[in-house]
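Task: sequence design from structure.
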């Protein structure tokens, strides 16, 4: 599905891959997602993750946490752009 606000995040992640900062990223169920706030991205940093968070923080309600569940992806971090997830991640001590 062609969703411009999701494509912006994908493009940012692709640039980070090209720059050698991100090893891999995934967006499960991409063809079903109609807005960024419903998307859950997964990321595996190649280097310090700080640059990834700096880049993605320009998108509204950005937050992340360690992907302990490993249900949708085996990658290291779960990245979201929803207010609810941001509040949940803040209580867990993440961004």
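Answer:
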């Amino acid at each position: 599905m062609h969703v411009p606000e999701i494509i912006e995040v994908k493009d940012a992640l692709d640039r980070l891959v090209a720059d050698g900062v991100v090893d891999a990223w995934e967006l499960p169920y991409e063809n079903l997602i109609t807005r960024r706030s419903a998307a859950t991205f997964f990321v595996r940093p190649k280097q310090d993750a700080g640059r990834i968070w700096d880049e993605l923080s320009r998108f509204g309600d950005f937050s992340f946490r360690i992907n302990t569940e490993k249900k949708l992806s085996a990658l290291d971090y779960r990245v979201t752009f929803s207010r609810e997830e941001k509040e949940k991640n803040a209580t867990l001590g993440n961004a």
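Helices lie at 4-18, 50-56, 83-91.
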